[in-house]
Amino acid sequence: MIQILYCGSSSACFQLEGDTPYYAKSGYTVFVNGEERFRRDTNVFSLFGLTPDTQYAAAVRFDGEETGESVEFRTAGEACCVNVREFGAVGDGVHEDTAAIQAAISFLPENGRLWFPAGVYLTLPLCLKSHITLDLDEGAVLLGSTDRERYPIVPSVTVDPATGRETLQAGFEGQELSSYQSLLHASYAGGISIVGRGVIDGNGQNGDWWRDFDSFPAKRPRVIFLNHTEDVTLHGVTVKNGPSWHVHPFYSRNFAMLDCAVQSLKDSPNTDGVDPESCDGVDIIGCRFSVGDDCVAVKSGKIDMAQKYKTPADRHAIRNCLMEFGHGAVTLGSELSAGIRNLSVTRCYFHATDRGLRIKTRRGRGKDSVIDNVLFDNIRMDKVLTPIVINMWYNCCDPDRFEEYVWRRDPLPVDGRTPHLGSFAFRNMECTGAEVAACYIDGLPESPIDQVVLENITVSFAQDARPGMPSMRNHNEARCRLGLYLDNVKRVQVKNVKLRGVEGKALTADHCGDIETEDFEEN
Question: Mind telling me the catalytic residues?
Answer without folding.
Answer: 293, 327
